[in-house]
């Protein structure tokens, strides 16, 4: 009697769960493309240099995000931005730019870039200056001292940095956050303290830190959490080791 009662409840529960998810017959003339487009492309009112503009953005999968570089929503938690080297900043900027190129569908990043190069007099002058310095450097570099060569190389690097990232800061930031799923994930709510606590528990139990962190996360977030937690744990153990030696 009890068994039949339980079976009845299970059937009813499963029926309720699957009734909107299973369709016996595909509707006549069904076209999945609009549904696919709706899931991949989104018109968003994004920040642009203090104002807002409408842009159509593409949704990226985990592989597409990874191909853009080593960039993490937890980067600022794990590493103090004030201590970032210029190489770290350039690496982060390169990843941001690749994400922007990957998500911008209308207009494309190339269309925006072309418009800037055609209309912006400062950009045009800086590009001409960069090309002239590079040309002179190639001709005279054999006769330069190491210090002179280093100063010119620094000048070239600064000009390339100026010209390399054309989108406004607020746009770069928004596109990066959106591409990485910050709007649907709770990963940015994590702190160094939470990551450290999870890593300590995980170390003691010989398991993954993400098991001790709850919230709404994407599959990619879990990988980031693992990396970030162990980095914070390593820094913590090194600090404790230094204190014991003092």
3D architecture notes:
The protein has 246 residues and is mostly helical. Helices cover 63% and strands 8% of the residues. It contains eleven helices and three strands; from the N terminus they run ααββαααβαααααα. α5 packs across α9 and α7 (121-140) packs antiparallel against α8 (146-164). The mean pLDDT is 78.
Short key terms for the protein model shown above:
single chain, mainly alpha, three-stranded antiparallel β-sheet, 3 strands
Q: Strands, helices and their partners?
A:
Blueprint: H1 2-18, H2 33-40, E1 41-48, E2 51-58, H3 62-67, H4 75-78, H5 86-103, E3 104-106, H6 109-119, H7 121-140, H8 146-164, H9 169-179, H10 192-205, H11 219-245
Antiparallel strand pairs: 1-2, 2-3
Helix pairs in contact: 5-9, 7-8, 10-11
Radius of gyration, in angstroms, nearest whole number? 26 Å
Biggest pleated sheet: 3 strands, antiparallel
**Percent in helix:** 55-70%
Principal-axis shape equals: flat
Q: Kindly estimate the percentage of residues that lie in beta strands according to DSSP.
A: 5-15%
Backbone structural class: mainly alpha
Low-confidence stretches: none
With strands numbered from the N-terminus, the spatial order across the biggest sheet is 1-2-3
Distance between the termini: 72 Å
Strand and helix order: HHEEHHHEHHHHHH
Look at the structure and give the mean pLDDT.
Answer: 78
User: What's the total count of β strands?
Assistant: 3
Number of helices: 11
């Amino acid at each position: 009697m009890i068994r039949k009662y339980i079976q009845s409840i299970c059937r009813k529960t499963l029926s309720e769960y699957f009734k909107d998810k299973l369709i016996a017959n595909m509707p006549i003339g069904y076209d999945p493309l609009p549904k696919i487009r709706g899931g991949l492309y989104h018109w968003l009112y994004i920040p642009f240099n203090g104002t807002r503009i409408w842009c159509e953005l593409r949704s990226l999968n985990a592989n597409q995000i990874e191909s853009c570089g080593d960039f993490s929503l937890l980067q600022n938690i794990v590493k103090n931005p004030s201590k970032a080297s210029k190489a770290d900043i350039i690496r982060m900027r390169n990843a941001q730019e690749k994400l922007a190129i990957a998500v911008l569908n209308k207009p494309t990043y190339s269309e925006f870039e072309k418009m800037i190069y055609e209309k912006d007099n400062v950009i045009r002058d800086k590009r001409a200056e960069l090309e002239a310095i590079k040309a002179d450097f190639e001709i005279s570099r054999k006769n330069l001292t190491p210090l002179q060569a280093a100063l010119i190389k620094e000048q070239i690097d600064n000009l390339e940095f100026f010209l390399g990232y054309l989108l406004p800061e607020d746009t770069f930031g928004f596109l990066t956050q959106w591409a990485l799923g910050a709007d649907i994930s709770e990963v940015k709510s994590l702190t160094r303290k939470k990551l450290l606590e999870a890593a300590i528990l995980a170390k003691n139990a010989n398991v993954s830190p993400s098991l001790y962190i709850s919230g709404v996360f994407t599959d990619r977030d879990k990988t980031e959490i693992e990396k970030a937690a162990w980095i914070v744990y390593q820094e913590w153990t090194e600090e404790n080791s230094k204190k014991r030696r003092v």
